[in-house]
Backbone:
């Protein structure tokens, strides 16, 4: 039986650590926050409000679900603890990636999830970039969106066979992907360390906070109601309704969907604990000479390579480089992160000048143990109609947008057949906070492997 938090429930220390809300200071210090247009007007929930579907969590997953529900004529209310995009959705790198993490290609997805779900999830994420950019166009979302392609440069010659296989698998699904040669990869990235690259031209990049605020605006225009600064403190089933309690009011709903990522604050510990949070640091450089764009990512693509400690970078519209990643130790990490990732990038792109961290921020992504999305029941009782959905796993812009639409179609009366994931019980990791620490602790080993592979490749 999934444990649901209630008035008397006190999360354990580990549940608190794993699910602690994001720090607000690092939200406001981001380049995205400095440049995104304002979100829709909204304020806290006061008194009692009734609705058909309550969505708790105002990130891409919550707003994509709410937008598509509202468009289908279903009454929906979104509760957000802070403001739209306050979580990972407003803090990420803004890469629109139409696939899952390395290793989770269609064949593995079918093996892991079974033929039906594996096929559906691969098709859904393969089309995810097109969906994101189509929504942006349809709703006129101002978010500096560039459908300029996503590339994954290959850092060793041994990986070239894997690259061919990856391209073949996505091509078999009708995706317009390509393998780039060494010369093309060097030209496209600006770095001679690469041996080839995977290219999906339907991906690209955007201002992630502006996209999230835009989705929120589109959802409210379509009829969804939004309450901000309304942290859900408890969710309880009363008769045939859910009651979500905030500090100043309550929301009563026939159906409930939690989209709080891993940071619900112990609202529903088991689904929250199914993912473990991973802190990532991000930095945007000072404005650089626009002429540099001719030999660093000249096609303005988003690039994330195949190393274990991957190197990801992109341009902004005003000629800054945005990059970032993990750090191995939490001590002094916010300060170290400001220069570590820029310096690391410059080692492979010596044509860049010394870069200053004009903006630095951090965010928490969440990953399930198998890096796959979930739709979990909140209780064992079939008629309860309460779920928690997670779709992050590090590559979430396309995935959360696409999964939100499918969940909305299902809640609007579609059949289970349209769902790309089964409805399951929560399967929490034993100690999510420790699992997330393990990620950083493992980093020095990953760096060692990367260094050895790069040395062999020279
Ligand atoms: C630094 C970083 C870089 C990343 N880079 C990329 C990238 O380039 N491309 C990509 O595709 N993905 C990337 N990701 C992952 C991506 O950001 C996530 O997959 C995605 O934003 C998850 O969206 P979500 O809606 O599930 O969760 P979130 O955006 O985290 O939304 C959850 C929301 O729930 C709210 N909430 C929590 N508890 C409560 C409560 N009790 N009551 C009410 N509201 C609550 C939070 O305030 C938050 O706004 C990155 C993530 C990080 C952190």
Residues:
């Amino acid at each position: 039986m999934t444990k649901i938090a209630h008035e008397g429930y006190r999360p354990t220390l580990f549940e608190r650590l794993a699910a602690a809300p994001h720090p607000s200071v690092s939200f406001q210090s981001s380049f995205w926050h400095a440049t995104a247009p304002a979100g829709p007007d909204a304020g806290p929930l006061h008194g009692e409000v009734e609705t058909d579907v309550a969505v708790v969590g105002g990130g891409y997953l919550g707003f994509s679900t709410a937008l598509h529900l509202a468009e289908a004529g279903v009454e929906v209310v979104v509760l957000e603890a802070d403001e739209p995009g306050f979580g990972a959705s407003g803090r990420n790198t803004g890469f629109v990636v139409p696939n899952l993490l390395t290793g989770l290609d269609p064949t593995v997805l079918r093996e892991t999830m079974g033929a039906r779900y594996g096929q559906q999830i691969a098709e859904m994420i393969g089309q995810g970039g097109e969906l994101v950019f189509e929504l942006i166009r349809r709703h006129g979302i101002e978010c500096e969106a560039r459908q300029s392609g996503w590339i994954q440069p290959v850092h060793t010659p041994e990986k070239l066979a894997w690259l061919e296989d990856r391209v073949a698998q996505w091509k078999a699904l009708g995706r317009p992907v390509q393998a780039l040669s060494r010369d093309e990869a060097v030209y496209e990235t600006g770095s001679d360390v690469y041996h080839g690259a995977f290219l999906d031209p339907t991906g690209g990049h955007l201002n992630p906070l502006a996209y999230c605020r835009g989705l929120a605006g589109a959802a409210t225009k379509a009829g969804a109601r939004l309450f901000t600064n309304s942290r859900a403190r408890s969710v309880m089933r009363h008769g045939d309704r859910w009651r979500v309690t905030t500090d100043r009011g309550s929301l009563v709903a026939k159906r409930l969907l939690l989209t709080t990522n891993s940071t619900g604050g112990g609202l529903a510990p088991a689904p929250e604990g199914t993912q473990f949070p991973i802190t990532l640091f991000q930095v945007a450089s000072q404005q650089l000479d626009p002429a540099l764009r001719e030999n660093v990512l000249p096609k303005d693509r988003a690039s994330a390579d195949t190393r274990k400690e991957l190197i990801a970078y992109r341009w902004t519209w005003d000629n800054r480089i945005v990059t970032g990643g993990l750090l191995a130790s939490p001590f002094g990490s916010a300060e170290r992160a400001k220069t570590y990732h820029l310096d690391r990038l410059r080692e492979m792109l010596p044509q860049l000048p010394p870069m200053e961290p004009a903006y630095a921020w951090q965010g928490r992504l969440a990953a399930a143990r198998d890096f796959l999305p979930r739709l979990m029941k909140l209780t064992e009782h079939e008629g309860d109609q309460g779920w928690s959905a997670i779709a992050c796993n590090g590559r979430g812009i396309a995935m959360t947008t696409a999964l939100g639409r499918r969940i909305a179609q299902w809640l609007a009366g579609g059949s289970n057949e349209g769902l790309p994931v089964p409805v399951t019980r929560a399967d929490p990791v034993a100690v999510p906070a420790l699992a997330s620490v393990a990620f950083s602790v493992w980093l020095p080993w990953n760096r060692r492997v990367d260094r050895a592979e790069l040395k062999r490749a020279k």
Observations:
- The two ends are 54 Å apart (CA to CA).
